[in-house]
Amino acid sequence: MAVERNLPWKTSRETKSIVSINRPELLLLLLLLSFPRSISELNQMQGYCAVASDSECSRSFTKILIKEGTVVNAHHKEVADVYIEDGVIVSVRPNIKVGDDVKILDATGKYVMPGGIDPHTHLEMEFMGTVTIDDFFTGQAAALAGGTTMHIDFVIPVNGSLSAGFESYKNKAKKAVMDYGFHMAIIKWDEEVAKEMELMVKENGINSFKFFMAYKGSLMVNDELLMQGLEKCKSLGALAMVHAENGDGVAEGQKRMIDLGITGPEGHALSRPPVLEGEATARAIHLASFVNTPLYVVHVMSINAMEEIAKARKAGQRVIGEPVVSGLVLDDSWLWDPDFTTAAKYVMSPPIRKAGHDKALQSALSTGILQLVGTDHCTFNSTQKAFGFDDFRKIPNGVNGIEERMHLIWDTMVVSGQISVTDYVRITSTECARIFNIYPRKGAILEGSDADIIILNPNASFKVTAASHHSKSDTNVYDGRTGKGKVEVTISGGRVVWEDGMLNVMPGSGKYIRMAPYGYLFDGIEKADAAYLASLRAPVQRTKAAA
Ligand code: URP
Ligand code: ZN
Ligand code: ZN
Question: Looking at its record, which EC class is this enzyme (predicted)?
Fold first, then answer.
């Protein structure tokens, strides 16, 4: 059963419509009419403030000075001050002097880092007969409370139309409280789709397309479509992404489990073993090599897939591997829990693997075999998960993570000594910005970069609970986890949006970040094409034999 907690977006149906309204005065009026108490009272109670304008709630300073923290970028760290004005970083150096109109944040003994960028989320996505429970308001509010200041969500075409899909997601994102970008899924192929891909890249700021090699009968593409998609991506300078599982194999595995009478959540993991992920990863890599275009493998969950990526990278191929938090810190044992609600919350695809895969993925991340961390935040509450009570094939696939990623990766990778603080910034922020061609606007604390910044206290601790998280879901796959390192302040677009355990967000304040094609992964691709053509020694000029 879903448990409704006392958070503003859960209190009434009216509340939902309020947060989607974009006009500040109307929003404030509706908030006042809808709630029995004053906004400030609610804010105190619930650790949350949906401000209607910059003058509401705590005052939103446009000038901020972060004093004497250790400023960390992907390749360097130093003790310095950071001065922010109107949403942009103006100066990074020691001893910056400012006037009284500037909010001062003392970061002594703390790390000042670029806000996290989550490359993989599904907010308000229609999937498996339902819709993910976190929308662009609740999902992003959760993200900000956990130190993530930008995410890239996957647009799903509507009735096969990319433009309709884009419009639909533009609408969903009207209540955005932080910056976001879009990838686009390709689920069918014809001339119209090819034309629309071009439109998405040239007009709409999308520079990546995702192909699902699983979910047979809904999102899955076959090899012919994947090949056409890879060719088109290459011609546009757009990055091809794959969900790599052998969808035919999965369908067969599911049938096998049902025939064996295994209908519970454990059947999900058993029906789609690592070998099917490894096979599809290898196939996608080989096809991308044949086309000579870069490839991005999303949610790498197994040693099998990771080793295919390692092999390809060693051979010089441009393949990016994205593990997600669930694959890095969880194992599949929960799927065997006798309580259905507990087990079902861990159902995602590819599945969370047996213990051992998690540690191997951590090592791959620390040694550069895998490059950046996502979440695949795709939340369904326990009522939605219960759609599959009698049949694991009907359990909506997906887990949370957008709020927990920065803390869990800090604790698992930095506190354990597996990676440096600079590498932490690289894998949670900078590398994503580089791959999707928005660096150094995002992913850096440099003069001129957007003021998306976190202050992390390495001596404080965090605890994850479903009762205290900001997601709309009633469950959390990391429930009860504790660790070292706490994001105490989040600054998004130059505003302090998370401080003293309080969110101070403004629906509609998040900006759509357009991403240009031909990111760094495309540099020099044409030279490899030229070398390939030169190597053919064909067509051979032949003279006709005399009659
Ligand atoms: O289980 C998952 N991963 N759900 C989200 C859709 C996808 O495959 O990324
Ligand atoms: Zn996927
Ligand atoms: Zn996903």
Answer: hydrolase
Burial of 340 (0-12, 13-18, 19+ CB in 10 A): middle
Pocket test for ligand 1, best of 153, 348, 353 (most atoms within 8 A of CB): 348
pLDDT reported for residue 35: 30
Q: What is the pLDDT of residue 545?
A: 82
> Quick one: which atom of ligand 1 is closest to the CA of 398?
1
Nearest 5°: CA angle at 86, between 174 and 107? 105
Distance 430 CA to ligand 1 centre (A): 24
Of 309, 349, 295, the closest CA to residue 327 belongs to 349
398 Cα–ligand 1 center, Å: 5
Please tell me the predicted confidence (pLDDT) of residue 46.
Answer: 40
Percentage above 70 pLDDT, the chain: 89
SS3 126: strand
Q: How many CA atoms lie within 13 A of 88 on its CB side?
A: 7
Least Cα distance to 423 among 41, 71, 76 occurs for 76
Question: Which residue's entry shows tokens 């109109």?
Answer: 101
Q: How many CB atoms lie within 10 A of CB 27?
A: 23
Q: Are strands 239-243 and 208-212 parallel, antiparallel or unpaired?
A: parallel
526 Cα: distance to centroid of ligand 3 (angstroms) = 31
Number of H helices, E strands in the chain: 20, 19
The answer, yes or no, to whether the previous bond of 350 is cis (omega within 30 of 0) is yes
Give the helix/strand (H/E) hosting 290.
helix 274-291
Per-residue pLDDT tens for 265-277? 999 999 999 999 9
pLDDT of residue 256: 98
Mean pLDDT of the chain: 91
**Residue 212: Cβ within 10 Å count:** 24
Q: Is residue 32 over pLDDT 90?
A: no
Indicate which residue's Cα is closest to atom 7 of ligand 1: 349
**Cα-based angle 103, 104, 105 (whole degrees, multiple of 5):** 120
Is residue 70's pLDDT more than 70? yes
Residue 541 has pLDDT above 70, yes or no: yes
Phi, psi of 129 (to 5 degrees): 80, 10
Cα Rg for the chain, rounded, in angstroms? 24
Ligand nearest 327 Cα, by number?
A: 1
Domains and CATH numbers, the chain: 116-445+458-482 (3.20.20.140)
pLDDT of residue 2: 30
